[in-house]
Amino acid sequence: MNIIVAGLNHRTAPVELREQFAFSEATTEKALYQLRENPLIEEALILSTCNRVEIYAVVKDTELGCGALKQFFLGQTNNQEVAVSTALYLYESNACLKHLFRVASSLDSMMIGEPQILGQIKDAFDLAMLHKSTSLILNKVFKKAISVAKRVRTETKIAENAVSISFAAVALAKKIFGDLRKKTVMLIGAGEMAELAARHFISSGVQSILVANRNYDRTVELALEYHGTPVSFEDFPVEMAKSDIVLCSTGAPHYLVSRDAVSKVIAARQNRPIFFIDISVPRNIDPAINELDNVFLYDIDDLKLSVEANIRTRENEALKAEEIVAEEVLQIICWFRSLDAVPLIVALKERSELIRQEEMKRVFDKLSALSEKEREVIDGLTVSIVNKLLHGPLTLLKKEAEGKNGNLLLEAAQKMFLLEEKNQTLPFDGKKESV
Q1: In whole angstroms, what is the distance from residue 289 CA to residue 81 CA?
Q2: What is the CA radius of gyration of the chain?
Q3: Does 50 qualify as catalytic in the annotation?
């Protein structure tokens, strides 16, 4: 049995090509059924996100299985076979396992350390199990992938530190104020950056948000979404006095927040600190407010420096994560190798039992005067003898099958016990990659 993956992602395919393969829950169910109907495919799972579409499968023949997955992708596209063939990647065996563990650990994500991918993998796994398209192999592998991702997050700092401008703004606010739960935030602007910041502030415990924007309908919409308070754009200079944190993100070509306005705000706040974050380009907050006491101003360049430093930190932590992935791949490979011993062990037990039964019949035919109780005692004795004789060899096979020389031992056992015609093992090979 072999495990393979075929897919395309943000590195190999543009969004207009990836979106052709975006699977909803309904289309995933249909696709899983179609894959399982293919006699070449034993198990299948589809991982579909905005940045990747991948199909993991267990197949009897690697080459034929890879061809089947490639044809499946080509069959889903609209006259773009060349583009799909160029963008598609195929991994098998060890390389497939490594790829999955890296994906789950967000090492293959557009932003290293992002947390969403693990949840998406869990959802894909749950859906595949719901539709019974996975079994022993993929169930084991995906449970392992989830545990590897958790280990990476526990043992490294790959998910720490802000790597987006909006998140970096919130992280800076937390450094200055510590606990944000009792702080009031004002958002000047209601675009995508402001909305992302609002989401991060809420997740960090902020309960009071004021929203000001030139388009009052949009102001009300964003305020309702985050349980905030809408403020008319004309009133925001006065309302700033209620705010501990002011984030400005608009398209205005000039300063919206002046030094004089902030001087009045500080006086009204009785010199309680206020934190300004200007992520507008061009800037909307007069940098001269930095001259005022208890006023802290950071612009987008300040935040970019923080983000760049944090990205470098994550990249360093990613090196530690890669070591964890490599270690975990070796562990799961050992498990795969142990599976190779199972059919041989079953065959050896069956052959031993057949021999025992034949010998028992021969003896009982000669000793026809034996009572039923005596026959049971002899039968139990022979079972015990066979089990004790097999215990050592079977234990050794199970243990050594996981090692580097496991396949050699299995082959030797096949020959030694004359099982070559009864059992054909499928070693988990070390092929790296197939494209």
Answers
A1: 58
A2: 32
A3: yes
Query: How many other C-beta atoms can be found within 10 angstroms of the C-beta atom of residue 157?
Result: 15
Model pLDDT for residues 332-352, shown as the tens digit of each residue: 987 877 776 777 778 888 888
The answer to whether 268 and 297 are in contact (CB under 8 A) is no
Q: H or E segment at 265?
A: helix 259-268
Task: Give the up-direction half-sphere exposure of residue 215: CA atoms within 13 A in the CB hemisphere.
Answer: 10
Task: From 198, 427, 193, 219, select the one nearest 333 (Cα to Cα).
Answer: 427
Q: Which residues have C-beta within 8 Å of that of residue 45, sequence separation ≥ 6?
A: 32, 55, 56, 57, 124, 125, 128, 133, 134, 138, 142
Mean pLDDT across 250-276? 93
Query: What is the distance between the alpha carbons of residues 188 and 169, in angstroms, rounded to a whole number?
Result: 14
8: nearest Cα among 61, 69, 64: 69
- Which 8-state DSSP code applies to residue 257? B
- pLDDT greater than 50 at residue 418: yes
252 closest CA partner among 280, 232, 224? 280
User: The tokens 């705000």 sit on which residue?
Assistant: 265
With beta carbons less than 8 A apart as the criterion, state whether 277 and 248 touch: yes
Cα–Cα distance between 38 and 350 in angstroms, integer? 32
Of the residues 50, 66, 248, 334, only one is catalytic, namely: 50
3-state SS, one letter per residue, for 301-330:
HHHHHHHHHHHHHHHHHHHHHHHHHHHHHH
Q: How far apart are CA 30 and CA 23, in angstroms?
A: 10
Distance CA 261, CA 250 (A): 18
Q: What are 196-238's pLDDT values in tens digits?
A: 888 889 988 999 999 999 999 999 999 999 899 999 999 999 9
Q: How far is it, in rounded angstroms, from Cα 97 to Cα 90?
A: 12
pLDDT 10s digits, 84-114? 999 999 999 999 999 999 999 999 987 788 8
Q: What is the mean pLDDT of residues 245-269?
A: 93
| Residue found under tokens 């209620």 | 242
Which residues are paired to 208 by β-bridges?
Answer: 184
Residue 208 half-sphere exposure, CB side, CA atoms within 13 Å?
A: 12
**Confidence grade of residue 1 (pLDDT, cut at 50, 70, 90):** low
Contact 314, 161 (CB under 8 A): yes
Rounded distance between C-alpha atoms, residue 13 and residue 223, angstroms: 37
Token pair 């004790």 is found at 388
